[in-house]
Design brief:
Blueprint lengths: L3 H12 L7 E3 L2 E6 L1 H4 L8 H25 L2 H10 L9 H9 L1
Antiparallel strand pairs: 1-2
Length: 102
């Protein structure tokens, strides 16, 4: 969903609640990496290995974003919730991270 990750990133930056366990990957707001996973970035990976690697990058992002959302003030979380499109209105912002990444 265009804009959701940008709104989330802006709220996290505004409130200084960024999670530092994994690094964001520029251009891929639904992925994060750590030192181990980054070491595979330039390696040729078989299809299955690549899929597992990307799944792990997504899992790091989801974990980090859940921490960030939980640390936002209630008003900021409510604002994110209200900004979700109608078809996702019942999603919590942390759940929307997974849906948007899909």
């Amino acid at each position: 969903m265009p804009g959701f990750f940008e709104r989330l990133d802006a709220a996290v930056a505004t409130h200084g609640v960024g999670d530092s366990d994994a690094a964001a990957i520029v251009g891929f707001p639904y992925l994060r990496t750590d030192r181990l996973l980054a070491s595979f970035a330039r390696q040729p990976l078989a299809d299955l290995a690549f899929a597992v690697w990307v799944d792990r990058l997504r899992a790091l992002n989801e974990a980090g974003r859940r921490v960030e959302i939980a640390n936002l003030p209630a008003a900021a979380r409510e604002g994110l919730q209200a900004s979700l499109p109608q078809h996702m209105a019942s999603h919590a912002p942390a759940d929307a991270v997974r849906t948007c990444a899909d």
